[in-house]
């Protein structure tokens, strides 16, 4: 069985396990979302039994059914893209809430993560190649930024550039009253709102890539094949990129995949600090409102994100490292 | 003797060799009988690792000339500075290594002092042009010398692309296939990655790569050390065959002097970063002059014949941060004189023809050297026809050896036929 085949099998089993656990946990916990919703709605008047039953059906929590029947039902619902109703955003469906929030997160945190990786890795390569240059001096500075708690840096950024200087907006993903539309005004407003949170993400996460890549690069530069490349009289660029960096980056691929998979979960702090309308902010709301259906769905997405990112990393490895292509 | 067989193959190679190597063989013929002109000359080379009182003096004042078509063997225990010498001379030394003195002259045209250039102060651009095109290196560890993520083809052709930009991609590919064939590997291995090849194959790929641009000098730093004995022999025979066919110069570095028996024209023995004995291989084997050389020769069993007690060398190599005063070898030397602890011997000629150089006070004329180190040697007999001798000439007129321990290595010679 090939390497990729084994990996795909592994992912399928993991996805099944994650979904099953996601199904079981709320059902094994005391209380259920319907009761919570009832408690909330009762403030606005009494509910009929039929209404309560309808809610139970809507949430997929018909307690009189056996667990096996419920499990079957759960899968059917899942395949229909039905994850129930959100308590917080009632009567919006969980799927709708997530579909609205997820693109914001993917754009802001996803792109920032990629930018941080590219810049950090690039500087790491150069810093190792030009030992003793000013780039090496940048390392302690960037380490300092990684050491700062993120929310603190975020709050300082909001205070300085938002409140005091007024260069950037304090919160939100778009200007007041604007709707999502793909035109110039929308894009510039979105970029303007994303700038500050994006810069804080890049600044805090870049150093990790930089230091990791530099260290790996220094190790790789000590390899015989790099010496051979130099002895072969290849251009400096080719020695640096194709011989050294090409090998040095391999360990970073796994961490990069992992960090991509944390885009969704990692968005929580950023989006709270900047009141950004992404999935992290929604999760924060869901937790505050004990909105189990929404939380469950978000956790499921986080799990899937981890798996998908790892799968992409596996693909990248097969592409970048011929040793993984070996039949074993 | 291996020498005669070599001449024949070399003659046949003149027809087969490539244009460039042919031209060089032609040049060799002009100076028939004597080695070709100097192609690489290391002069007064000194290399330290680190600085200050704790600096490791890994190479100290080394002088060594490589002639066109010559195979120089550099032998010495590990840690004696052999690799450092090779890296420094080719400017591949890495920090904390520092070249603290000396020159490494490269002669694009043999012996032409006017066109020579010093590798140690050549510009990065010049260096890049000379590297591999004229001066290739095969490293010890075939395991790590190939880039694990690039195919054999890419690693063979990128050298061609860098140095022969006029070559088309198809021509480069064809040449890469030829190179593999030259070292006995099926060209369909071009698409293989290093991890798919055995250790011996990888080392052959490295050798093929080293010969890609028909360099004048190939440095081999322990090319067979990481391999098993059988593969080691195969590689060695391959090297001998290729060098006989194409006539490039080789600096063959090894900690195993016995490997040099069949291979080297000249041998340089290194101890504690210094050359302690240099001379024509066969004369050095038959009549070593330095106690360390004698010790190395007694350290290996004959390849054939009964294994007699190996005397070896007692003690261990010195710490190169604190090399003993006087002769660095004196704490381990069984012939040491009282003044060996104070006087530092210099590498000086000890044969009438000046071909043999030794750094040992025993040969400074103030006493007669012990019998083991004073075997008669062709070069010490000042006879008229000497000038007419070929590189292997003196051997034929060697006086018969008396049966001492020194003749043992000779028994070990296996003609590689
Ligand atoms: N990077 C280094 N830093 C410090 N000392 C070194 C380094 N590389 C080699 N040396 C020292 O230099 C000496 C010569 O090493 P080397 O040239 O590798 O010897 P050889 O090739 O003969 O085994 C050794 O004593 C070794 O300890
Ligand atoms: S100089 Fe003295 S110590 Fe050194 S090798 Fe010669 S005899 Fe031995
Ligand atoms: Mg070595």
Walk me through what this model shows.
The complex is a heterodimer of chains A (328) and B (417). With 328 residues, chain A is an all-alpha fold. Chain A folds into 2 domains: 2-79, no CATH class; 94-325, MetI-like fold. Chain A has helices at 3-28, 33-42, 49-59, 67-79, 94-129, 134-147, 150-164, 184-221, 224-231, 236-248, 250-261, 263-273, 279-288, 292-320. The longest helix of chain A is centred in the middle third of the chain and has 38 residues, at 184-221. By secondary structure, chain B is α/β, with parallel strands linked by helices. In chain B, 31% of the residues lie in helices and 18% in strands. In chain B, the strands form 2 sheets. Chain B has an 8-stranded mixed β-sheet with strand order 6-7-8-3-9-10-12-11, sandwiched between helices. In chain B, strands 2-1-4-5 form a 4-stranded antiparallel β-sheet, covered by helices on one side. The longest helix of chain B has 18 residues, at 229-246. The model of chain B is unreliable at 1-19, 22-34 and 381-417 (pLDDT under 50). Classes of the chains: A mainly alpha (328), B alpha/beta (417). At the A-B interface, helix 9 and helix 10 of A face helix 4 and helix 6 of B. The structure holds adenosine-5'-diphosphate, iron/sulfur cluster (SF4) and magnesium ion.
Topology:
The complex is a heterodimer of chains A (328) and B (417).
Chain A: H1 3-28, H2 33-42, H3 49-59, H4 67-79, H5 94-129, H6 134-147, H7 150-164, H8 184-221, H9 224-231, H10 236-248, H11 250-261, H12 263-273, H13 279-288, H14 292-320
Helix pairs in contact in A: 1-14, 5-8, 5-12, 5-13, 5-14, 6-8, 7-8, 8-10, 9-10, 11-14, 12-13, 13-14
Chain B: H1 2-16, H2 19-30, E1 38-49, E2 56-67, E3 71-75, H3 82-89, E4 97-106, E5 117-118, H4 124-130, E6 135-138, H5 142-145, H6 152-163, H7 169-182, H8 199-211, E7 217-221, H9 229-246, E8 249-254, H10 260-263, E9 266-271, E10 274-280, H11 281-286, H12 291-297, E11 348-349, E12 357-358, H13 393-396, H14 408-411
Parallel strand pairs in B: 3-8, 3-9, 6-7, 7-8
Antiparallel strand pairs in B: 1-2, 1-4, 4-5, 9-10, 10-12, 11-12
The structure holds adenosine-5'-diphosphate, iron/sulfur cluster and magnesium ion.
Magnesium ion binds next to helix 3 of chain B.
